[in-house]
Amino acid sequence: MSDSILQIKNLTVEFSTRRGALKAVDNLSFSIASGEVLGIVGESGSGKSVTSLAIMGLLPNNSKVTAEKINFNGNNLLNLSETDKQKLRGGDMAMIFQDPMTSLNPSYTVGFQIVEALKIHQGGSKKHLHDRAVELLSHVGIPDPQVRIKSYPHQLSGGMSQRVMIAMAIACKPKLLILDEPTTALDVTIQNQILRLLFELKKETNMAMLLITHDIAVVAENSDRILVMYAGQCVEYGNTGEVIEEPTHPYSEGLLASLPSNYEGGAFLEELPTIKGVVPDLSNRPEGCQLNPRCPYVEPRCLQAEPKTVRSSNRLSKCIKPLGNVF
Asked: Is the full-model pTM beyond 0.85?
């Protein structure tokens, strides 16, 4: 996309471990435009969170990040100093993590933590920063913000804590907001409230959003495009409606079939449909297609060589024999 605010090309992330090199992300490419929501889905261990942390520059020291391109808003993130990365984080680029209780510092009030983020990136008088923090808490739906600004994280519910994290993330009006499983720890009612709030904020500011989740139903309802990851690789990529309507990769098909709403067995289920097996050990990958131990359509050639990515219009599928009539 010519108007992409984030462009990733051939991103690979490896970790040095006692068992050898572990490739958590393998040659991943995608882009996001301003005002667009890209959803990344896949099981735990598929490389979703590692991808987001690589973009933010928050991976541990035993990681090695390589890419042909990681461009954000005209900046090549691979060439930035740590000081410049810190200026971007929390400013033009922000992230909401899945567990607010461990993301907030328990030793400081939520007001102090919001004010610190504002002070670093925007500055201003003490009164201005305090008033802005109160305004942000009110904006994300926290009642009595003048009182809650003095609260410590342990005094808030999970839903309240996540709203505080959202307030901190949007404080400096980021151009890109990364959401890593933003509602996993919340009940369904609070989950819906948080998602509704996030997408209202997106409309107000036209920020781009990278929505990472294992729940393909959340992405189906809230994203413009979808990227399906398996074993660190992109196995399917395209417009959300098209992928949901006609998945071309067996893994995408399996994720969709596993949704309870897509099961025709009625209310009395003995067993929900699942994708048999588990994500492969990334330090001891299978030969050929990474899905072959679990794929219902596996053929002998799937065991021999890794499939090439097939392209058609706005769709990608990493399968030797894509499903449906797209390709």
From this structure: yes
